[in-house]
Amino acid sequence: MDKELQVKLLPLRNRIDSLDSQILELINERARTAQAVGDIKHAHNEQGPVFRPEREAQVIRALQGQNKGPISEESVEAIWSQIISVCRGLEQEIRVAYLGPAGSFSEQAAFEFMGSAIVGVPCPNFDEVFRTVEAGGANIGIVPVENSTEGAVNRTLDLLLHSPLSIIGEHSILIRHCLLTQSGTTEGVTRVLAHPQALAQCQHWLGMNQPALNREPVASNAEAARIAASDPGVAAIASDIAARAWGLSIVAEGIQDDPLNRTRFLAIGQIDTLPSGRDKTSLILAVPNEAGAVYKMLAPLSENGVSMSRFESRPARTGQWEYYFYVDIEGHQHDPAVVTALEQLQHRCAYFKVLGSYPRQ
Ligand SMILES: O=C(O)C(=O)C[C@]1(C(=O)O)C=C[C@@H](O)C=C1
């Protein structure tokens, strides 16, 4: 390196070394303090959850509020999610279940939401994610609930209906699909495998660029990558992370029809999340199949100034054109306006379930 450049850089690098030493000492002090918090939690209630989603959201939002830059608010979130993850991991080993195998978007969402200091529990399907968390094999589950191109993930909605678990958080990620094969070309390839949602999200691109490939649905994109890794006649639609995980080559990147394709994931668990100051509450409702019933059912929300941010319906499978309505509202179920609205709403519904309140992303 040029001598003059070295002379200029040296004091700045020395300063960075000294700052890093201070940051390291402070992070370790923070970790020891979190361990002390953990000791108190364990002493008070052996089964008590170490993971407090509302507290983590408050810590990050407070720091974003104090941040004077030049680092961005997203960077504050990324750095402190990781610091908190490590502190939490010292308090207790946190197991997180999601749809595997390695390299799935669910895995990406799990590690982004919970940080790297977790033990991943990949599951073969969404039912198994719920079952694993319900049975205590994992503390948290991560499941997709909606995609910006394809809409609701119906299996997740159906599982939420009967599960005793609560929604404790949400996290959305950008979905970038790639076409993957062993060779990096589609020569000799006859089939393309992917999760049905991914096939739907790439249908236009496939029609224009790979019309000869037979499209076949499988349980997950990562599963498609796993199969492609052992069969040169198979292409998979999956992430670049899956390409690395399964030793595949990328034929084409960003093949989803919508370049801003996002999927929102829910964190599910057995925790009663407290108000964080900026929350959402998810409900499942049903009313008899009568004129104006849905309108009447929802009136208590607007009457109490509670905003609805999502409304989705699923057939109740009674053969009577009856539906379950999946409704997200702003606020926490303990907020006074929400308490009143939910009390009134419950009286108008044939079915009423609070899926949980959790910090808004
Ligand atoms: O405040 C707590 O309850 C902690 O356990 C500390 C801490 C943190 O590192 O800030 C870690 C885990 C919890 O999910 C919330 C916050």
TrEMBL record:
Record-marked site positions (Essential for prephenate dehydratase activity): 263
Any one Gene Ontology molecular-function term assigned to this protein's record: prephenate dehydratase activity
Domain Chorismate mutase residues, every copy: 3-95
Domain Prephenate dehydratase: 95-270
Swiss-Prot/TrEMBL keywords: Amino-acid biosynthesis, Aromatic amino acid biosynthesis, Cytoplasm, Isomerase, Lyase, Multifunctional enzyme, Phenylalanine biosynthesis
Catalyzed reaction equations: prephenate + H(+) = 3-phenylpyruvate + CO2 + H2O; chorismate = prephenate
Domain of life: Bacteria
Entry annotated with the keyword Isomerase: yes
InterPro entries, sorted: ACT-like_dom_sf (IPR045865), ACT_dom (IPR002912), Chor_mutase/pphenate_deHydtase (IPR008242), Chorismate_II_sf (IPR036263), CM_dom_sf (IPR036979), CM_II_prokaryot (IPR002701), G/b/e-P-prot_chorismate_mutase (IPR010957), Preph_deHydtase (IPR001086)
Pathway involvement of the protein, from the record: Metabolic intermediate biosynthesis; prephenate biosynthesis; prephenate from chorismate: step 1/1; Amino-acid biosynthesis; L-phenylalanine biosynthesis; phenylpyruvate from prephenate: step 1/1
Entry GO CC: cytoplasm
Main location (coarse class): cytoplasm
Biological role stated in the UniProt entry: Catalyzes the Claisen rearrangement of chorismate to prephenate and the decarboxylation/dehydration of prephenate to phenylpyruvate.
GO biological process: chorismate metabolic process; L-phenylalanine biosynthetic process
Species of origin: Orrella marina
Entry protein name: Bifunctional chorismate mutase/prephenate dehydratase
Protein localization: Cytoplasm
Statement: the UniProt record of this protein carries the keyword Lyase: yes
Entry EC number(s): 4.2.1.51, 5.4.99.5
Alphabetized SMART domains for the sequence: CM_2
SUPFAM superfamilies named in the record: ACT-like, Chorismate mutase II, Periplasmic binding protein-like II
Domain ACT: 282-359
